[in-house]
Design a protein that fits this description.
single chain; 314 residues; two-stranded antiparallel ribbon; 80% helix; globular
Amino acid sequence: MNYILLLVGLAMITFCADMLTRGCVGLAARFRVPEFIVGLTIMAIGTSMPELTVSIMSALKGSSDMAIGNVTGSNIFNILIILGICSTLRPMDITRENIRRDIPICIGVSILLWFFTSDTLLGMGAENKIGRLEGIVFILMYAAVILYSIRTAKGEGEASDDAPKMGVVKIVAFIILGLAGLIFGGNLCLESATAIARAWGVSEAIIAITIVAAGTSLPELASSISALISGKTSMALGNIIGSNVANILLILGTCSTITPLTLGEITQIDMLMVIGAAIVLLVSALVIGRRKITRIEGLSYIAIYVAYVIALMK
């Protein structure tokens, strides 16, 4: 039954991702909002709802490592697997603004997460945790990052005057129904995949970083591929970067404000992998692909993730 539910969830995610993408493209065209910003905000927050739901529920149940592992695993999965798959399907262009502003922000918040969870290493406490004060800082920083990105992105990649316009009601319906379907389908995949993993005897920490993280990232995967197929590479990239920033600042900020989070079995290596994945993206864009993620780079991303998961299992 779990295998059947997993397939049903995947089918729902695929259908609703296309609906969400069409709604976001319609929004960008009608209101002349840069596609990257639509991906960074509406699409990113919407596709991060499964992570938010799972992390808050885990935190309330006292499973802090599940909440943190879900976010760290999702961020690693988003860059190495989702961008890896997308760029393997079609090389992705990266703008100067992405290199100067967006990817560095992603790296910066990843480093901040490591700093806030390194109490024992930095001599600031006997336990690695994210307290309520850090949670409030995360939330305030998220609001600042979104406002800064919107202000500095005005005029970037706006829809042309002859772009097809979609009705406002249809746009809202597509976005709401698409998000609802993605969240429901993502939770369905998550629960069934987790049950399968536990039947195989996999530990909860590894489940959080791999199975749960991959399951809650399925909306990002589906919506990014859908946007890529539609030729909206900037929206797909904005979705991934925006989701990673939202995962750390908004989701962990909200969870740790509700109840302080401890790392538990999540290690510093996992935290450094979050930073490393973002740095790999920057180096890839600057040095290797020259403002482009090529198919070879995409395959390399996937190989790095596979090596990481194999190392976790040992």
